[in-house]
Design brief:
The structure holds two protein chains of two kinds. By secondary structure, chain A is mostly helical. Chain A has a single domain, classed as MetI-like fold (Orthogonal Bundle). Chain A has helices spanning about 5-50, 65-70, 75-105, 115-125, 130-140, 145-155, 165-195, 200-205, 210-225, 225-240, 240-250, 260-270, 275-305; strands at about 50-55, 60. In chain A, β1 (about 50-55) and β2 (about 60) form a beta hairpin. Chain A starts with 5 loop residues before the first helix and ends with a helix. By secondary structure, chain B is mostly helical. Helices cover about 80% and strands about 0% of the residues of chain B. Chain B has helices spanning about 1-30, 35-45, 55-65, 65-95, 105-115, 120-130, 140-165, 165-175, 180-190, 195-210, 210-215, 225-235, 240-260, 265-275. In chain B, about 45% of the residues are buried. The chains are: A mainly alpha, B mainly alpha. Chains A and B meet through α1, α3, α4, α5 and α6 of A and α1, α4, α5, α6 and α7 of B.
């Protein structure tokens, strides 16, 4: 039997042959050419740069993997790596965990004013990270800062300290800006995910006598696997990339152990003129990010295979 | 019944507390723009402004170059959003409706790849490339990569919209003898307005907020976009809170306004975009 649109399809195909494959490439050309030249070429060139010793202007000297050997012995790299690990806890793990808890409390049942709350929770996502850092630099400031004032009102003035100006507190203070900025995002994604879960599952669980904790672990958590993967990827990219870079630049400038790997790579390349070495740092960052993204997406995809 | 009331109350208290926590820093920023630095020291950072004067805005805009930063941000964002939408409509049409060899490669290997790459990963070779092209300190050096990335993102959003349109739409137009070019601009584009608004708003916000690319490529203070100008400004005037907060407000306000005006679409775009 012929498919119902057989006639149409034939004429479409004839038409398509007339207009040719050439036309589709013409339609694709602006996007593809600009992406290849300004995104993919630099991305690939970075791998080549990582194998040379180069100040950015003079001749390139091929050194093979020496940059990577140096890098693994570089204390400043490991310190930046450590800062990134702490940011991972504050920007990825903490919002993920708190987001799951809050979403599972608020998502079941209707709340009035959902749109208002959604708007509010999302605002940090649309504001430049530099502006967020600028606001928090004031909040954390020692004498006329907001946090200092709040502690003073609460009678805890002696607990106050220059949060961003001391090695013991600076990394945590910067990390908490990330928690603050990403919590709302996580809540919204998870609430949307929970509302897609079939309510009958919960009703059946209640009939079987499952308490809310059991419902959370046996229904909510497995069904949110995909949303969790998405949040993991998005926040990890931000914690390794632009977000941490901009927040640190606008608060501590990288002092007191707050410098993330991305900022270290920037300073190596554009302040110290060690372009080849800086590229090796970026390569490590790239590999790390793709590994984390691949693992998260693999775990998230499994929902569809079951 | 009573237990349910308690649960409901807990929910409201929780969502309200988090909303306050998120909004409070922005509220403090905004209120500080109407105050004097001496007033912040004297009455503390939490006090409400006593009178509303736009003096700080005038100072920051006209004495501290924020008027230039605004102009530069607009000169970067408008061509990026306009250009990338045109690029994206064309490539989304090709990737959804047309048939050609290597289609999957272009979709997954180029367009999806272009969306994933953070600026940090390409900043070093990008500087070398722009230096070679003589574009350092030229707004084009920021526009071109942002244009490419935005075009990739909008392609994905608009393509998934095109894929949802009924096949008969295309077939009947073809029977009438319309060319692909006409079908794209006269039939598909007007229908895709919701997807265009969503991806346009998102790419506008991201382009407005770009920091690393201009940091690497723009060194002339008079050519800097807002976030870079703000970073420079706050480094120079650490001690004057109201002036810095005015600069932060000027940087943050346009994306917030765009976002609040188009709120349901933008949130939908981010959550769906993230979930794809």
């Amino acid at each position: 039997m012929l498919p119902p649109f057989w006639g149409c399809d034939v004429s479409r195909r004839a038409h398509f042959r007339r207009q040719g494959v050439f036309l589709s490439y013409l339609f694709l050309a602006p996007t593809v050419v600009s992406t290849v030249v300004f995104v993919i070429y630099p991305f690939l060139a970075n791998f080549f740069y990582s194998t040379v010793q180069w100040d950015g202007f003079g001749p390139k000297i091929f050194v093979g993997l020496r940059n990577f050997v140096l890098l693994f012995q570089d204390e400043r790299f490991w310190s930046a790596f450590g800062a990134n690990f702490i940011y991972f806890v504050f920007v990825t793990a903490l919002p993920l965990f708190l987001g799951l808890v809050v979403a599972s409390i608020i998502a079941r049942g209707q709340l009035a004013g959902t749109r208002f709350f959604q708007s509010a929770y999302f605002i940090p996502q649309v504001v430049a990270a530099i502006a967020l850092g600028t606001i928090f630099r004031w909040i954390y400031a020692p004498l006329f800062g907001v946090l200092h004032q709040v502690l003073k009102i609460a009678g805890l003035e002696r607990m106050s300290r220059p949060w961003l100006g001391a090695p013991e507190t600076a990394v945590t203070a910067v990390g908490l800006i990330g928690t603050w900025a990403w919590l709302g995002f996580c809540i919204i994604i998870f609430v949307a995910g929970i509302q897609k879960i079939d309510q009958a599952l919960y009703e059946a669980a209640i009939l079987d006598g499952a308490n809310s904790l059991q419902q959370f672990f046996h229904i909510t958590l497995p069904d949110l696997r995909f949303e969790i993967a998405v949040v993991l990827v998005m926040t990890t990219v931000q914690c390794l990339g632009s977000f941490a870079f901009a927040i640190v630049s606008s608060t501590t400038g990288g002092a007191y152990g707050t410098r993330p790997v991305a900022l270290y790579a920037y300073q190596l390349a554009f302040v110290e003129s060690k372009v080849g070495y800086a590229s090796a740092v970026v390569v490590v960052l790239t590999v790390l990010m793709f590994a984390i993204a691949a693992i998260s997406l693999f775990l998230g995809e499994r929902r569809f295979g079951e | 019944m009573k237990a349910q009331g308690v649960v409901l109350a807990t929910r409201y208290v929780l969502v309200t507390l988090i909303a306050l926590l998120v909004i409070l820093p922005f509220a403090l920023m905004f209120m500080a723009t109407f105050r004097e630095h001496t007033d912040i020291i004297r009455r503390g950072p939490l006090a409400l402004p006593q009178h509303f004067s736009v003096d700080n805005f005038r100072k920051v805009l006209f004495q501290h170059h924020f008027d230039r930063y605004y102009l530069n941000s607009i000169l970067i964002t408008v061509p990026v959003v306009g250009g990338s939408l045109v690029f994206a409509l064309m490539s989304a049409f090709a990737l959804s409706v047309m048939d050609f060899p290597l289609k999957r490669f272009f979709l997954l290997g180029v367009v999806s790849f272009g969306v994933m790459i953070p600026e940090v990963f390409i900043m070093i070779p990008l500087f070398q490339l722009m230096h070679g092209l003589g574009l350092v300190n030229n707004l084009l050096s920021v526009i071109l990569p942002s244009l490419a990335m935005s075009a990739c993102f909008s392609t994905l959003v608009i393509r998934s919209f095109f894929m949802g349109l009924p096949r008969e739409l295309l077939d009947s137009a073809m029977v009438d003898g319309a060319t692909f070019w006409e079908i794209l601009w006269k039939i598909y584009t007007p229908l895709a307005i919701p997807a265009i608004v969503t991806s346009g708003a998102l790419t506008a916000v991201w382009t407005w907020n770009t920091y690393i690319t201009p940091l690497v490529l723009i060194h002339d203070p008079l050519k800097m976009p807002l976030p870079l100008g703000l970073a420079l400004f706050q480094g120079q005037y650490v001690a004057n809170v109201p002036l810095i907060m005015t600069g932060a407000t000027l940087t943050a306000l346009p994306p917030i306004v765009v976002y609040l005006l188009l709120q349901p679409r933008v949130v939908l775009g981010i959550t769906q975009g993230a979930l794809k």
